[in-house]
Amino acid sequence: MSTVLQLKKVIKSYGGAPALDAVDFSLPDNAYIALLGPSGSGKTTLLRVIAGFEEPDSGSILFHGKRLDGVEPHDRGIGFVFQNFALFPHLSVAENVGFGLRNRKVDPVTDTRVLATRVQDMLALVGLKGFEDRAVTQISGGQRQRVALARTLVTEPKMVLLDEPLGALDANLRSRMRSELKAIRERCGVTFLHVTGSESEALAMGDLVLVLDRGRIAQAAASDIVYNSPATAAVAGFLNCYNLFAGSVVEDVFVGPAGRFPLNTSRRKAPQPAYAIRYDRVSIRPREASLSPDEVRIEGDFIASEYSGAAVNSFFALDGGHVFEVESHLSHARPPVFIEKHRYALVWKKEDALVFG
Ligand code: ADP
Ligand code: MG
Q1: Helix (H) or strand (E) holding 357
Q2: Domain named ABC transporter: which ranges (predicted)?
Q3: What is the atom index within ligand 1 of the atom nearest the CA of 215?
Q4: Using a 6 Å CB cutoff, which residues line ligand 1?
Q5: Where is 233: in which H helix or E strand?
Q6: By CB count within 10 A, which of 115, 124, 225, 304 is most buried?
Q7: Distance between CA atoms of 253 and 256, rounded to whole angstroms?
Q8: In this predicted model, which residue has the larger pLDDT, 342 or 167?
Q9: What is the helix (H) or strand (E) element at residue 268, kind and residue range?
Q10: pLDDT on residue 141
Q11: Which residue has the higher pLDDT, 110 or 156?
Q12: What's the pLDDT score for residue 8?
């Protein structure tokens, strides 16, 4: 696969604080890329630097192998879909979509017939045929999202940046638009770089997932690799499916405030030692149940459960205040019943833990 975009040690600071701290990555052409990171990790800054709305302090950005330094945003061939859609409320759907073409500095489309055809093609692409004359104030959130996308795609960008494109939609629509966006991208055949704070959205949508942690790329890998093998404890934390403990490794034991966990697993190099166990790798047993040599246990007081149909998530208070989460898959079974404030053993296999440090 050929590379569409490459960033080399891109740094961008605001008032001395780095928002992007030597960002390095390459993106393949014709792919859906998800960029996951918590609020404040630098996602929007990264998109703005790629689009040319912000100048990096240092480093370089190559687009199809050519440096973008000094190239105006309009001339980069990179489209941008803003978080709040940024549509013109006084213009119709078709006028919003056509706007991008009419106002191009280079090669504006002034022939109204050509313009109308291009707008029609784009509305068909995003599934909005027949909505040409509607006011953008009189369509749904999902439809506004499509108008914003069509307005970007009509300029035939060679890559599209989307800043939390589903963030403004309600939950039902958000999950439907996931597959819509993927399908639209496949039809136009260019790379989409989709920024999100939602781990499930990133894992579901990305052919490749980049994880941004405090202005640095902590991991760039396929969804299943990020999920099963997070590169750092911070990445494991963003995924919302690991119990994480700080502490230190002493010989073959991880020692932390929550307890001592004997190790039988390889360690990942990391500056901060941490121990991670996935919610769904833990079983809940009576305190008196016996333990096999390949298992680790701690004890916790049951707080509450959340039933979600296919699974039930249970929360336990550990000594020292840490809340520990267990996900039990149900497959036809009724959810187990635990007694509030009762103490249980929480058990997992040594080899299922991830150890950093
Ligand atoms: P995200 O989109 O992941 O939430 P941002 O890229 O918006 O993160 O912000 C990253 C960091 O840079 C934050 O600490 C933010 O406060 C800071 N920052 C972003 N834009 C500006 C700006 N224009 N001026 C000053 N600080 C900024
Ligand atoms: Mg942002």
Answers
A1: none
A2: 5-239
A3: 10
A4: 14, 19, 37, 39-45
A5: helix 233-238
A6: 115
A7: 10
A8: 342
A9: strand 267-268
A10: 87
A11: 156
A12: 98
What is the pLDDT, as a whole number, of residue 320? 83
State the amino acid at position 65 in one-letter form: G
What's the gap in Å between 263 CA and the centre of ligand 1?
A: 39
User: Whats the size of the chain, residue-wise?
Assistant: 357
Say whether pLDDT at 77 is over 90: yes
134 within 8 A of 72, measured Cβ to Cβ = no
* Residue 55 structure tokens: 């100048």
Give me the CATH code for the 241-356 domain, please: 2.40.50.140
CA–centroid distance, residue 45 to ligand 1 (Å):
6
User: Mutate which of 11, 14, 41, 162 to test ligand 1's pocket (most atoms within 8 Å of Cβ)?
Assistant: 14
Which atom of ligand 1 is closest in space to residue 38's alpha carbon? 3
Dig out the tokens for 82 from the structure. 């803003």
CA gap 69, 45 in Å, rounded: 16
Looking at the CA of 165, name the nearest ligand.
Answer: 2
Domain 3-230: give its CATH code.
3.40.50.300
Residue 104, pLDDT score: 66
- The pLDDT of residue 90: 93
Mean per-residue pLDDT, 67-74: 93
Q: Which ligand is nearest to the CA of 46?
A: 1
User: In this structure, which ligand is nearest to the CA of 38?
Assistant: 1
Element (H, E) at 202: helix 199-205
Residue 130: half-sphere exposure toward Cβ, Cα within 13 Å: 1
Whether pLDDT at 336 is above 90: no
d(CA 97, CA 148): 7
User: In which residue ranges of the chain is CATH 3.40.50.300 found?
Assistant: 3-230
Measure the CA–CA gap between 195 and 202, rounded to whole angstroms. Answer: 8
pLDDT value at position 83? 83
